[in-house]
Amino acid sequence: MKPKILTGIRPTGTLHIGHYLGMLRQTAALQDDFEVFLMIADVQALTDHFLEPQRVREAVLEVALGAFSCGIDPTKTTLFIQSLVPEIAELTVFFGNLVTVSRLEQNPTVKTEIAQKRELFGKSVTYGFLGYPLSQAADITVFDAALVPVGADQLPMIEQTREIVRKFNRLYGETLIEPEARVVDAARVRGLDGAVKMGKSLGNAVALDDSSAVVSAKVMSAVTDPLKLRLHDAGHPEVCTVFAYHELFNADNLETVAAECRAGTRGCVACKRELSAHLDAFLEPVRVRRAQLEPAATMRALLDGTQWARRVARSTMARVKRAMKLDYELEPA
Ligand code: TRP
User: Fold this and answer.
1) Domain range for residue 232?
2) Atom of ligand 1 nearest to the CA of 145
3) CA 124 to chain centre
4) What CATH number is associated with residue 11?
5) What pLDDT is attached to residue 43?
């Protein structure tokens, strides 16, 4: 039996190159050696998008299309919808006894996110948002995942999951697997405006389905070294967002790009054109695969994956309930 991997994506919009470089490429590379579960985290997405259920609903299929076009193979990976696996919600409730409110309030990821979402939450925060680390711990453990590929921002989530698992196993006997994080290097692609985070809603992201023309227009609007005003001014690649993208998409020519920029022999417009071409070449196979995907068949693959995910989750919950003395037999109604 192959060891299991689980990771999740929140469906809040179309996928962008950050998702691809971050998690999807890594996950696709692991499909042969692990049993991979890739969860579309619609329940988690609602913890901060509860005002926009329609947006989450529409993004579920978008994420599935994006995942398959980035090389996630439905014959190898189980792609599924979180809300259709109620066992996750059930386990989340059980985990509620194993963690204190103050521990949740100290989770650095949650803390940062609450600060960013003042507008949504006001002075307080919902129980659901504060508690989503429990739900994430349930996502992981209900599938017996040993490894969780995530960006570095998610490390506190995995740490908290590990604490919960240790506590569960101590109280109720060895039942759950303590997972490890696998940090994805390129998980944070900064926005074209230089913001640390790329996001569709921030308007600074290249979407996986952007056309060549759109990619080019977005790259042309990207910020560069603010001190390089004229073509022949010497530039500072280390502060330039366009250069940061060359690092990701034009690695073979990086030294030339940096040297010419520093020497003042490379203008920003030419530099952006070169980047656009590379970005476009990177996206082309993704677009081709995407064009071949049919929404109805994609949805079917997603639902098939969900059936399997439920079977796995149900069997873990039988173990959990036995451990917690909740293993009643109820005749089917
Ligand atoms: N919180 C993750 C993110 O925002 C998504 C996610 C949900 C996840 N459940 C997960 C990641 C379980 C890893 C494991 O990116």
Assistant:
1) 210-290
2) 14
3) 26
4) 3.40.50.620
5) 98
